[in-house]
Amino acid sequence: NAYSHEILGVLGELALAIDNLPSWAAPQHVKKNLMMMRDEAYISFEPLGVVLVIGAWNYPFVLVMQPLIGAIAAGNAVVVKPSEISGNTAQLVADLLPQYLDPELYPVVTGGVPETTALLTQRFDHILYTGSTAVGKIVMAAAAKHLTPVTLELGGKSPCYIDKDCDLAVACRRITWGKYMNCGQTCIAPDYILCDPSIQSKVVENIKATLQEFYGEDVKSSQDYERIVNKHHFKRVLGLLEGQKIAHGGETDEDSCFIAPTILTDVSPDSKVMEEEIFGPVLPILTVKSVDEAVEFINSREKPLALYVFSNNKEVIKRVISETSSGGVTGNDVIMHFFLSTLPFGGVGNSGMGAYHGKHSFETFSHRRACLIRDLKMEGSNKLRYPPASQKKVDWVKFFVMKRFNKGQVGLVILALLGLVAAVLMKNPQSVLKRKALWMVLAVQRLGWPRLW
Amino acid sequence: QPLFEAEYSEILLCKNELHDALNNLSHWVKDEHVDKNLVTRLDSAFIRKDPYGVVLIIAPWNYPIHLLLVPLIGAIAAGNCVVIKPSEMTKKTERLVAEALPSYLDKDSFAVVTADVQETTQLLENKFDYIFFTGSSSVGRSVMAAAAKHLTPVTLELGGKNPCYVSDNCDVQNVARRVTWGRFFNAGQTCIAPDYVLCSLEMQEKLLPALREAITEFYGPNPQESPDFGRIVGDKQFQRVQVLLRSGRVAIGGQTDAETRYIAPTVLADVQPSDPIMQEEVFGPILPIVIVATADKAIDFINSQERPLVVYAFSSNDKEVNKVLERTSSGGFCGNDTLMHFTLNSLPFGGIGSSGLGMYHGKFTFDTFTHHRGCLHRNMGLETLNALRYPPYSQPK
């Protein structure tokens, strides 16, 4: 479980970085205008300097390692601050990292809130923070003092809309997997379900059946079902159950921080469980009578980190995506967009800012420096821009700067030339030569055309 | 601002951005399909370009139209609504924007707010979905602090002291002309102007007459009479810049006229790093020259300062230009010229460290104002493939 969720992801990210770093880090030459044809113009990817990575407790290893890989790939020094709530992993990282990485460039700082607050008074060149919205604001405020750019991977209530027209058995199995993995403590877990009242009971039945399949008759004794991280969160999640209609589950055991996979039905939008991100194995179902109502509901709330929509109808999925905003989306499944590193992973609004994973990590932790290297000679063309000003100078500058017409005009000239060649060849009485010439002209035109435009 | 400068910087460059956006928008806005891994091979995976929502653009006074319109073009192209806050320092332009914009753009989606410092602070208490600010580093900090309360992402185009290294190995007259143009454009009130020169004592002696010649070539024997030389924007700024003259020794210029807020194109020689003019961004028509013995010393000096918006290096030797480029860090870099990297909009324009955060121009503006949303549209079928990920977990999987 931990292996597949935490370690495989890190290994994948490492392999990607190692394979692609030369191409990611190479200077990117850019299109030039007429005035700069003889110059070198490119974007240089440079390190930012010292990056601070603050990890979270729910996936304590990967949420520290994945950003670390990107930051190192981009050439930065990194201060790693694992979450103190997952104390064992924090200690593991603190013990192991210095054995493999130079501790002067990649130190690990352990500690709780006071240590983190002290750390944040220091000046960094980028801060990547994974955690809650409330602390995200504190991190950004601290960063503002030093004008430090930030990437904030926060949270929210990720809605999951189930359309009437959909394979419920499959949908519910996928949702069950995503919801209850790590006991619901996943930032992109489907937080709540929106569906038509007519399918609510079927949804419950399907999830119940899947839970049985996954964890057996007695969930508590299943090897694969996790626990809530600590008493504080246990009490918090327990409190969300107050006054709710429990369709399934609800059993708890404070000693082991166990909360059974729970489903709530006919949940009211104003209830406590709909106020904050659940981050626990409690799945509320709210009924909506149409896609419109679902979209309206989603839009009346803060932008979530992830959005899920299940439907056999592609149009419904497209509609829900285009009429809402969220960090990311998976259609007809949950969580999976996280595992495709070519997709940027990040939030929007209250769910965060910035993104990472794969090449996006490299870009997040790099400074894109615009470089223009000109010739110290060739002063002639510069005279156009120097005072004293004149109308003639203005007109010439307009011509050189407005690069728009550059390619088009060259294309037109070449077309004219080809036309001329064709006309000349046409006049030749030998038909074989004529045909061959015509083919040649057409071939050149077809090949050359897209490049010119 | 002199007429030609205004035409070039305020109008031409904006038109360039506009054409770029109009020609390419349909391409920029398309969903970007991405490479997939084995698991997602049969799915549709793409990056969607979503607007953020309501964007706030705060413009400064030095190029009040350009630095308002160029971000505005990008924000609109990206599909956002925009609140525009022009600078209160340039009253006539502020009024022009407030009166003209609503006659072209829908008032419900694009509002102009005129506000002084206090009112802008109040404006910033509101929640925006993105804030684009051009101005000083100190105000940049307060903008970001206000944004932090709402977790609003920001782009801050700030400033700094842009060093200009001049090698002993160069064509002095060409260097002098290019540096003169960049320094005295808009009477020095340009965030990417070469702020100070670093060169050897020998080079300083060669540069001074060359600079004098360039200044005369551009503005005539009495720059105060030239229609092509600007003035300082306000009395407060005039006084601030005037104080900086007490640094090094005045080698060229130095005359001032408070009534017209005129400060002559001035070059100060033998400036010490401890002098007043080296403590803040000049933002005026004064060019200090600081002596350094070698390129290495110049690089060390640049690196001991805050990272600037741009680093300039002049040398006939390519390797030397590259050395300065590679061993320093800055928003952007321009070798053997000044300001020009700003005009090529295929290059991103932005700062680093205290010179700013984020970037724009061309497609980068569009990207700045869009949320890149990762989307994975999966197949409902082929559920058996998913079995690998479901509990109960056992080793063979």
Automatic annotation (TrEMBL), chain A:
- E.C. code: 1.2.1.3, 1.2.1.94
Question: Mind naming one GO cellular-component term on file for this protein?
Answer: endoplasmic reticulum membrane
Q: Name one GO biological process term.
A: aldehyde metabolic process
Spell out the Pfam families in the cross-references: Aldedh
**Active-site positions, per UniProt?**
E153, C187
Q: Catalyses which reaction?
A: heptanal + NAD(+) + H2O = heptanoate + NADH + 2 H(+); 2,6,10,14-tetramethylpentadecanal + NAD(+) + H2O = 2,6,10,14-tetramethylpentadecanoate + NADH + 2 H(+); tetradecanal + NAD(+) + H2O = tetradecanoate + NADH + 2 H(+); an aldehyde + NAD(+) + H2O = a carboxylate + NADH + 2 H(+)
Q: Which PROSITE patterns match?
A: ALDEHYDE_DEHYDR_CYS (PS00070), ALDEHYDE_DEHYDR_GLU (PS00687)
The portions of this protein that span the membrane are 41-59, 408-426
Compartments reported by the entry: Endoplasmic reticulum membrane; Microsome membrane
**PANTHER family membership:** ALDEHYDE DEHYDROGENASE, ALDEHYDE DEHYDROGENASE FAMILY 3 MEMBER A2
**To which protein family does this belong?**
Belongs to the aldehyde dehydrogenase family.
Q: What is this protein called?
A: Aldehyde dehydrogenase family 3 member A2
Instruction: Tell me what organism the protein belongs to.
Output: Buceros rhinoceros silvestris
Automatic annotation (TrEMBL), chain B:
Query: What biological-process terms (Gene Ontology) are attached?
Result: aldehyde metabolic process
Q: Give GO MF terms, alphabetically.
A: 3-chloroallyl aldehyde dehydrogenase activity; aldehyde dehydrogenase (NAD+) activity
Query: What's an example GO cellular component term for this entry?
Result: cytoplasm
Q: Which residues form a coiled coil?
A: none
Q: Is Disulfide bond one of the keywords UniProt gives this record?
A: no
What InterPro entries does UniProt report for this protein, alphabetically? Ald_DH/histidinol_DH, Ald_DH_C, Ald_DH_CS_CYS, Ald_DH_CS_GLU, Ald_DH_N, Aldehyde_DH_dom, Aldehyde_DH_NAD(P)
**Entry annotated with the keyword NAD:** yes
Q: Any idea which UniProt keywords this protein has?
A: NAD, Oxidoreductase
Q: To which species is this protein native?
A: Buceros rhinoceros silvestris
Q: Which family does the UniProt entry place this protein in?
A: Belongs to the aldehyde dehydrogenase family.
The record's Pfam families line, in alphabetical order, gives: Aldedh
Active site (record annotation): E157
Name the UniProt record assigns to this protein: Aldehyde dehydrogenase family 3 member B1
Domain Aldehyde dehydrogenase residue range list: 11-371
